[in-house]
Amino acid sequence: MASLRDVVAALETAYPPGLAESWDAVGLVCGDPDEPVSTVLFAVDPVVETVDEALQIGADLLVTHHPLLLRGVHGVGADTPKGALLHRLIRGGAGLFTAHTNADSADPGVSDALADAIGITVEGPLSPAPGPALDKIVTFVPVGPAIGAVHEALSAAGAGEIGDYSHCSFATAGTGQFLPHAGANPAIGQVGKLERVAETRLEMVLPRGRRRAVVEALRAAHPYEEPAFDLLEMAAIPSSHGLGRIGSLPEPESFARFTDRVAAALPATAWGVRGAGDPEREIRRVAVQGGAGDSALGAAVASGVDAYVTADLRHHPASEHVLAGTGPNAATPALVDVAHWASEWPWCVQASEVLTAALGGSVEVRVSRTRTDPWTTAATHPETRRPPR
């Protein structure tokens, strides 16, 4: 049987905590890592209904997308709503784990699950996260044993790591030249005499955070009194991580039919699905972002997609967006606004499959179908008429 520690490790491998925004609160909220886990329930929200469900099915762990304790707290007394939920989980022998903005930016993550549910083939992130910040150090070492010593020192300081490889470097042969002046103590040559030395140009990448350590290691290991080196900042390379996704439908379809497609793909909510744009506009390329996404309207426009699917769109940004371009050849994408909960629910299925693949049959996984969307009723005016298909 798997332990809670095993489950957490599997989830954090898929949704690395380092991808979370600085303001977020992700990871294990309560639970003993050494306790066994036989059943895990996945849900969007840690609320009374999902806690009830977890305890009713005998789950050892409730995994949610939204945090219970997003803001700092000074206590979790059972006389507070959130404290009461934690006390119930602990008394019932269940832990709580959260994967929030780290799951949003992961590859695959929340928006991949949304795109897959709608039937979109993903091409990449809508708002790519930059890759790791890297520098390159270039130095020049006299031919001989010093090359190995300098290379090893730089590697030990953190240079030369690329993926699962270490000690990575590139070396080329050349000739160095220098003229020692009075006061110098050259390792090779004499004061006042121009010296030419067979040298090796050594290049290695390094994490920007290791810059000082690598330079200090170079100076300590290099045989020259004043070693020459270049330290170059490398351009950021977009990664497969980031918010939102861009992709394509199998075949073009009208915006009205596309809106129907989205509604059929997601769990039913009182909010439903709303579309802003010409119903007859042809839709092929689509951007999606699970959760609140009007902050990414600019990225959706820049991507050149035909439609953008997200949640919690506000009136004024949406109105101004639609005003910027309408008609079948509009420059801005049509908008599809769905319920926040519904846009993120497909992730629960994805995460459950991730855990099953990581731990096999040692853990039973369940996905909550309890609707925790806060909106419970909706009404349409009798005069409202939907545009013809």
UniProtKB/TrEMBL annotation:
Protein name: GTP cyclohydrolase 1 type 2 homolog
Assembly and binders: Homohexamer.
Binding-site positions, a divalent metal cation: 65-66, 104, 340, 344
GO function term, MF aspect, one: metal ion binding
Keywords: Metal-binding
Segments for region (Disordered): 370-389
One Gene Ontology cellular component annotation held by this UniProt entry: cytoplasm
A family per Pfam: DUF34_NIF3
Family: Belongs to the GTP cyclohydrolase I type 2/NIF3 family.
